[in-house]
Amino acid sequence: MQTDExxxxxxxxxxxxxxxxxxxxxxxxxxxxxxxxxxxxRALSPLIAIGVIIVIWQIIFYLQLQPDYVIPGPRQVxxxxxxxxxxxxxxxxxxxxxxxxxxxxxxxxxxxxxxxLALGLNSKLRAVFGPILTGLQVLPSVAWVPxxxxxxxxxxxxxxxxxxxxxxxxxxNGLIAGMDQIPPIYLRVGQILGAKGLPRAWxxxxxxxxxxxxxxxxxxxxxxxxxxxxxxxxAVSPALGPGLGQMLDTGxxxxxxxxxxxxxxxxxxxxxxxxxxxxxxxxxRTLRNRGLIR
Amino acid sequence: xxxxxGAHPVPPRxxxxxxxxxxxxxxxxxxADGPIVLEDxxxxxxxxxxxxxVGASGCGKSTLLNLIARLDTQTSxxxxxxxxPTLMFQEAALFPWLTAGRNVELALRFSNxxxxxxxxxxxxxxxxxxxxxxxxxxxxxxxxxxxxRVAIARALAxxxxxxxxxxxxxxxxxxxxxxxxxxxxxxxxxxxxTIIFVTHNVREAVRLSQRxxxxxxxxxxxxxxxxxxxxxxxxxxxxxxxxLASEITDELRRExxxxxx
Lengths: 294, 261
What we know:
Shape of chain A: flat
Radius of gyration of chain B: 18 Å
Number of strands of chain B: 9
Mean pLDDT of chain B: 85
Structural class of chain B: alpha/beta
CATH class of the largest domain in chain B: Alpha Beta
Distance between the termini of chain B: 50 Å
Strand content of chain B: 15-25%
Distance between the termini of chain A: 30 Å
Low-confidence stretches of chain A: 1-11
Structural class of chain A: mainly alpha
Number of strands of chain A: 0
Low-confidence stretches of chain B: 1-14
CATH superfamily of the domain at 93-243 and 272-294 in chain A: MetI-like
CATH topology of the domain at 93-243 and 272-294 in chain A: MetI-like fold
Number of helices of chain A: 12
CATH architecture of the domain at 93-243 and 272-294 in chain A: Orthogonal Bundle
Order of helices and strands of chain B: EEEHEEHHHEHEHEEH
CATH class of the domain at 93-243 and 272-294 in chain A: Mainly Alpha
Oligomer: heterodimer
Number of domains of chain B: 2
CATH architecture of the largest domain in chain B: 3-Layer(aba) Sandwich
Helix content of chain B: 25-40%
CATH topology of the largest domain in chain B: Rossmann fold
Largest sheet of chain A: none
């Protein structure tokens, strides 16, 4: 490509490479991602809602509508959590629960992805197994806790069974939905390029369905987390070690409303944190890379 | 693949009977009792030839390309190609999760080009369409014309000798289209590919091709043929282009009016 400067009078209209460079320059550029300031504001804005909730809560507490043991104030809940932290229970429980949920989630992804691909690619398989998958997704996985306890006793196997039954259907269905939304032209291009079998699934079908798949992963994580909490709440045993669900159950047993609310707050906080740190950036990146947002 | 960056001799004029694409008595119906989309279409395309198919909507020209590309199968008749063809669409259809360069590299990968050569090869191909600086850009960061040039690079990456183009410039503005005509002619001369170009734009067909075929609609048949010969692209403002284009347009209009009754 020619880059030497010419005075305007000498520019020939037929000079193709210059015409091309001009067209390219005019029709692109001037786009950039969000600034650091915008990103910062986006990350901090949920804190505003938390602040508002605490203020309203504090007001209700001051009004003394109910005795303290029914509606404890923010301060008492904070103290209850601080007390758990002093006994090393809070962080152990939180980390233990996150570890279980993360491990269960990863196993769920490994199981759900081939299932989703198979059902998304093969309409006959889908007609046979699709309804079962949807049924499993609709069924609250807490319903499996009694069965899992009978099968596996109060063990880790029980907890992982419940997590998997909660997360796998969501992830698989998300992937199938993402595959349904692939613009047909991408698959035709894949055919023209000679893509077949596994390379086709890996290089074309999976990335093309990634937005729906990601939504399924996000929902799968939420299901994994709530299934875990249900399992921990019901399957309480010293053999299983601490967890946020167990902490919540301790609060219930002791009639300690501050600990109950504190545990609920921790469970929500972990959920928000994972969304903010893992899924939200992934989603933003995907949308920006594909030109779906600026 | 015979892609040279220097001047390429004009595509060899093939002997009679030598073909790159041979279509014989092809009939296409999408359903057994449905309308006949293509009726007894026969056509030989010589190696290195640039042929345009023009016709109104519903003449089955896109269907014919899909059949040649084996994206679909004909109801009867035979289609032979010397080597597998590649196909380009009206939209560039680049994969949005890959950069321009990676899109070209993916085509190389599926054509079994070794990993170590792909990046260099992709850069060469992008340079051929003057987009070497867009290697790391995402499709949405490129203009429509640039995307279509990446699509050309991706098609060339497959190393096929037959390029099928389905109204590839229809969605572009006039000045970009004009410019891409010159680019396409240059690439055709450099690579010696056989090109079958489908369009409803008669002037575009006359300007680019050595031979223009007019198709009727419902059923789609080839009803006339103009041999233009020559390899030197005509400028759009040349009187010869205008005369021939208006002759073909008249016949196309007569064909469309036939459907009014």
